[in-house]
Amino acid sequence: MEAPHLRKPAAAGGTDLTTLMAIGEILSESLELRQAFPKVMQVISDQRVMRRGTLILLDESTGRLRTEAAIGLTPEDIQKNRFMVGEGVTGSVVATGRSRVVADVRKEPDFLNRTGRLANEPAGTAISFFCVPIRIENRVAGALAIDKPFQSDEQLQSDLVFLEIVAALLAQAIQINRMVMREKTELLEENAQLRSQIRDRFKFENIIGDAPAMQEVFATVGQIANSRATVLLLGETGTGKEVIAKAIHYNSPRRDKPFIRVNCGALTGTLLESELFGHVKGSFTGAIRDKIGRFEAADAGSIFLDEIGTMEPQLQVKLLRVLQEREFERVGDTAVVKVDVRVIAATNVDLQEEVAKGTFREDLFYRLNVVPIYLPPLRNRREDVPRLIDHFLDKFNGVNGRNLKKISREMLSILMRYPWPGNVRELENAIERAVVLSNGDEFGEELLPLNIRMFAQQRRQSQSTESLESLIKRLADQAIVDYEMREGHIYQLVIDQIEAALIERALARCNNVKTKAADFLGINRNTLNKKVKELGIDTEE
């Protein structure tokens, strides 16, 4: 029989309320329906003498009904138990949104019995079948179906009311499950997209470094990225050691696994040991719960140990064991934890000198120094400064909604000649400051930090007070140093450079009119033309 579509459910008795509370608790404990549903059905079976139960959901992409979870059915039965909307008793419940109760399914022509389960029932036993719709946001999303031995017409109505309440509880759980799964899928997609962006960002071709010294770094990184060899990054502070560490990780087979960074100089003693290796509850004051360490979190990935030279000697012993044996114990624990982690260490101090002083273990140094990579200071790769400036201008203009772009040759010359003791990090901070303080697109000297402005002022004073005689002597000294390896050609190289510079400036002063430029220099027009051709000077008539 078909249950009335609008019916005020009878009040559940005390036993039913207890059962419903138990069902609610089960559904609140797990969002995985296939785990929770058998427990729910077991509670119903204990109370209502149920034989079998199925949770049927509508697959909106195919328009078919599938068994999401079941109790009392084999996996083969579950595969058979599929319907179209409107097909059989279950299909009609989903199509109409009305509950149906069949006192004896053997006498119901709409009951399809696709699993063949009635053949296992004793002859002459009436098996009742209940199917109630599951509604989510005023739409039928599926159905709850159970069968049990027939007891009485009154019991049929009581069971129906009870199952409709259970269906409402299941509807809430399904809705929450779908929301969580949708958010999880979105997060996974976002995570995959972010990982892809990071991998692209740390491709070698996307890291600024055209200087020969940086190309040598990239070549070494390209050779060792696919290995698990320990890497030691050396260089002054601010040279970009973390960028290279990430390039090693994201160009390696571990690219989809964690990259964990630890600044060894930020913590000392037990706190650093706990940060690296974790601890168990009560192992020291403040250890109120168990905690995994960074090595454990980086399992199958890479760990970047920055400022490794500051690590205390007693902790160096534990790090040495990790490098040798790939295992450690948490603070306060005796259980051994095995890990597969690639170690990339970095330091701005001379570790060999620290070994000589006795502050750094020699055996640990050799374990870390498998593949040493030296990152040159910015003053040794000045040809990269213009590209770095453009990169940081684009970055901070976008972040701050500014349009600082125009930089004069004089300003670029200042930034190229400044020694950059803080290296790339100092340059980045200087450009960020300039962008934040800018009011237009002109990059004026007033936007630079005080130390760079003072350097520019001293340089101008030095240039203005230097006599021509002292300048010539200084140029000669510098030329001998620069061209020492080209002995026998020094004189002509210097003369050619001076002539080229004089002619270029004379042409610029005279608006590229060669006759005027020749008169200005005091040479013949034909001589000027010959020099322009020989020296490869670009000019226009």
CATH third-tier fold name of the largest domain: Rossmann fold
What coarse outline follows from CA principal-axis ratios? elongated
Summed up, the helix count is 20
Number of domains: 4
The CATH homologous superfamily of the largest domain: P-loop containing nucleotide triphosphate hydrolases
Q: Structural class, from secondary structure content?
A: alpha/beta
Return the CATH class of the largest domain: Alpha Beta
**Average pLDDT metric:** 85
Task: Give the oligomeric state.
Answer: single chain
Ends: how far apart?
A: 103 Å
Please state how the strands of the largest beta sheet are arranged side by side: 3-2-1-6-5-4
Count the E strands. Answer: 17
**Beta-strand level of the residues, as a percent range?**
5-15%
Unreliable residue runs: 4-13
Helix content: 40-55%
Largest sheet: 6 strands, antiparallel
Give the radius of gyration.
Answer: 39 Å
**CATH architecture assignment name of the largest domain:** 3-Layer(aba) Sandwich
Describe the structure.
The chain has 541 residues and is of the alpha/beta class. It has 4 domains: 14-181, 2-Layer Sandwich (Beta-Lactamase); 204-376, Rossmann fold (3-Layer(aba) Sandwich); 380-465, Helicase, Ruva Protein, domain 3, CATH 1.10.8.60; 468-535, Arc Repressor Mutant, subunit A (Orthogonal Bundle), CATH 1.10.10.60. 50% of the residues lie in helices and 15% in strands. It has 20 helices and 17 strands. A hairpin with a 6-residue loop joins strand 12 and strand 13. The termini are far apart.
